[in-house]
Amino acid sequence: MGIGFGDDEVGVLGPLLVRRGGVVVAVTAPKQRIVLASLVMAANRAVSSAELVRAVWGDRAPARAAHTLAVYVMRLRRALGEPQLVHTTPSGYLISLPHGAVDLHRFADHAAHGALAASAKDFGSAVEHYQRALDCWRGPALADVPSEALHADEVPALVEEQLRVTAELVDARLRLGHGAELVPDLRRLTARHPLRERFWSQLMVALHRADRQADALDAYRQAGTALARELGVDPSESLRAVHHSILTGDPALRGPLPSGWAPVSQLPAPVGNFVGRADELDRVTALLAGPAAVVAVCGPPGVGKTAFAVTVGHSVRERYHHGQLYADLRGHSTSPPLSTTTVLGRFLRALGARPDSIPADEAELVRAYRDRLRGRRVLITLDNAASAAQVLPLLPDVPECSVVITSRNELAGDVGAAAVRLDVLRGDEAWMLLTRSLAPEAADEQGDALRELARLCGYLPLALRIALGNLVGAHTTDIRSYVDDLRGGDRLSALAVPDDDSAAVRRAFDLSHAALRPDAAKLFRLTGLLPGPDFSAFGAAALLGADEATARALAEELASANLVQRVGDERFAVHDLLREYAAERARAAGDDLEAARGRLFDWYLSTASDVGDVLFPEVRPARGRADLPDARTARAWLEAERPSLLAATERCARLGPLPMAWSLVEAVGGFLGSHGHHGGFLNAVRAAGDAARAAGDTEAGGVVLAHLVAAHRNLGDLRAARDAARSGNPVGRAVWLLAGVAGVVALDVGELAEAEDRFREVVGASGELAHARCAGLIGLGAVRLARGELDAAEALLREGHGLALRVGAVNLAASGADLRGRCRGARGDHPGAVDLLREARDGWARTGARPPHAETTAHLAAALCLAGEHGEALRTAQRALALVQELGGSPRIEADVHNALGLVQRHLVNPEAAVAAHLRALELSGGVGYRHGVVQAHVLLAPALLAAGRRGDAVRHARIGIGLAGETGYGGLRQAAESLLAALG
Question: What is the dihedral of CA 356, 357, 360, 363, to 10 degrees?
């Protein structure tokens, strides 16, 4: 202790310790120590007599426990001396101590300063503060305090904090470049806490930096064994990611180590002119000061729940230095509520999870999300929730994280939250909101009118802001006129916004609507038809049947009136309450809603088809138009409109027109299937499939099924892809689409006879359609290449590739170049392979198809290696790894990347790194049923093991490779394994 915080010091982080005036005070009676420890744990806060009784006696309190407790307190006061520290309160007792006199407080202060320094990247200062925090501990907390209740209720949280700060200290030292010197401490920490994956992760990095790669990989195996034995679970995604980085020799592990965590702030911008709510803000911020706080904010629509939650989030963000997550769950919107899988996927991506590691199953998503949050201080804001069922999977299970929920419904009891209800503003608060936003003289000259305006708006924040939209910049006499109009606005009282009992609010909306020019008013009404969260000027033009310039001007007019909000670049969103009001006004006004919706959905489909023609002409060949957008513009439009397109698809699948659902899937399927949006797209595909079945359209059902197979493959679920491919009976154009993707899946899983049949089916069904013939020829060439029949493969691939180039099938052309390059490489023409693979890589870069871009980059790395360009090969392999991790790959593609990386490492004379890379490829491939990856990993492992001096293991893997290649028909791989085995004798 002895740091000098005044005359009085008390310690609970170890044996109970009291110093007064520098002299140790002995408190020897066990029950007095319990009372003193209980008071110190809550220093400067009252502790009820009931809490103290439980701490002293547990559930076996004597009949006169309160009287006996008073005696203990009296004796404690005598022992502690003057001036008195322990005081009586109406409900119990309180010990008064300077903040710095309690070791627990000093520990928390230093830990908080360490976290702030770390977030500012001042890791030297962070190390100093974290070490000072840990120096406050003199042994096990409350070591000599014999209270079962305290050891059950208080000590575990203290230990958790101690371990968290220990881990933060190690992280900071790793960020400073430390390595070998940390190993002994981390060995002790993992031995004492074998289920704490963070310590294992840090030990692996420290060992790696000490050039002890084998020990680092062995530490991962030890961690996996401990987790499996004690918990029956596998290592978390974060621990697997470190293992993966060590396997691949990620150079980032050698330098100042990134934390593995990207602090993220998804909170919307602070709300301008936020007023009032002081009591509620104080209550919520106090609640968030405790561990694992969950706060449910409820209130009527338009009361400002979102603004309140955002204000809270910004006020406490320093406490949550690892990040702030935010999601609008759309629980009370005309758009479909966000699904649990969608929200969790977004959160995981925001928290730095690799897209290909994000599972599709909801239960696995929840586990991955909670694993990712473990040991981190993150604030999660769940806005606009509909029900407890929507919220519960999104709640973390770690004490460091807190949650703020907003909803029109009272959810607190159902989700275990503290309830905070928001009502309308007080009169003075509403007046303040108005006067802050209007001209200064308005408050002086029209104070009474503004108070009446606030009353007529029902003191509801949304209504007040709508009124302000009409009054900002107005002359003071206009305020009186506006108030007179609002006071007499009963003409539309029948228009009740759902769950809104305030006719005055509707009158405020009515006046805003009435103040608009007719065309702007019509656009506002039609926004109630929007399926997605926002819209562009082009979407507005479609709703109105007007030109884009006119629609843009009208949308800006609505934004100026606060009836829509500007979001992003030239996009606009509508508050859910206003959207409901707009829809009701449209019905009352007699607008032709079906015609407007038809124009909007036709625009979605027409534009989606145009951009799909540019990016994926193979799915539905272009119609020879000259006004199609360029690829960059096409991708940007699809990215911006993706949520609306998916929402429109699901809406049409439910409510019609049914053909629109599958037509939208077909138009955007190529893009969404290759740009990392697999999860959301999968839901839309399933909805479109339901629509096709309901309509009895077999051809449409087959087309959608082809997209479903591709979506499963892109998600890495080859078994689901294969099962789906075998479930359909396609007709018409769907025959070659489904056969093509089914053939690719059959190639992956080692069913080459089926793959050949499927690709022959594509060629047979192609007729005059050149794109289909390209796909069939390239697929048949891929089968021949896999069998090792190189002459036949080269002929088929040359023909298919040439045809693809002639007809502008950009994706098939890239695929053909890739396969031709691999075929050249198999013939030993490695420079020729490099040229073709570079052509393929550049083609994927132009289309923006990210997973095949990563795959081709891996093949290019292998070709460069075999061409003798080892340095360039390593850089290319690392680039492939970055692509597959950061841009949305799959376990299947990542396995190919690791096999290429292993090949490169072997030629760089790093046999252990090569072995590790191939083992990782084997693990990934086996996990998803990717048999080609499995066979290739065994075949490449053999020479890597031989180079590492493990001849027996090399022979074993060569034999396994020969056996599996014989079963699957991968003749080229079998020949390579047989050649090695023959050389080994």
Answer: -170
